[in-house]
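Q: What residues go here?
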């Protein structure tokens, strides 16, 4: 079975970031029935992440989360945006991760914020980070501000969610089938091209 880890970086116990993560997971489940998703909440690992940053050693609990990310076929990554960027906890988690943990791995990026002023944060902060880590980031990022949870923005948000998870599901089709890294990049190129061209007449 294809495995996906959903990393959610909301700092409060109940957050719009976790809500968006859950919506993405539900949508992915509708896109493909043959997927197992595990959620990693960084809030629960905050002290472990700080300790690993200072000592260079991961606690068993943090190491288990890092191992799950490295073993997953794909990732959903959701973070809140503060002052035009992701919080330190989010960055620190990826700082303590092995540098090759997500090479060639399909990744869906999502972010939440209180205002649409942060709507480009996925493009200017998240996407460069995962490009550096050599992940296969799906074309559609999912951003949700306070407006998107209301009646006026809900439909557009749902469309973005479904589009992004469809792109992730397309890339995951090749996961766990013995494809080489070159094959995965070819699959990504084909997926991106088909999305850009739109449905055939």
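A:
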């Amino acid at each position: 079975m294809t495995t996906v880890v959903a990393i959610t970086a909301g700092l409060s116990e109940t957050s719009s970031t976790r809500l968006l993560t859950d919506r993405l997971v539900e949508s992915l489940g509708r896109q493909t029935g043959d997927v197992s998703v595990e959620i990693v909440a960084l809030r629960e690992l905050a002290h472990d992440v700080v300790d690993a940053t200072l000592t260079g050693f991961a606690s068993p609990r943090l190491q288990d989360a890092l191992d799950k990310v490295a073993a997953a076929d794909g990732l959903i990554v959701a973070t809140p945006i503060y002052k035009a960027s992701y919080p330190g906890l989010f960055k620190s988690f990826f700082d303590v991760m092995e540098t090759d943990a997500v090479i060639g791995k399909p990744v869906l990026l999502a972010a939440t914020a209180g205002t649409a002023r942060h709507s480009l944060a996925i493009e200017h902060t998240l996407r460069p980070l995962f490009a550096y880590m050599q992940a296969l980031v799906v074309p559609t990022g999912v951003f949700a501000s306070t407006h998107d949870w209301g009646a006026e923005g809900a439909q557009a948000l749902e469309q973005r969610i479904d589009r992004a998870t469809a792109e992730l599901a397309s890339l995951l089709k090749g996961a766990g089938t013995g494809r080489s890294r070159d094959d995965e990049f070819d699959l990504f190129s084909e997926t991106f091209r088909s999305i850009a061209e739109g449905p055939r007449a």
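A: Context that may help when evaluating the design: Residues 154-172 form the longest helix (19 residues). Strands lie at 2-8, 35-41, 74-80, 106-112, 136-137, 142-144.
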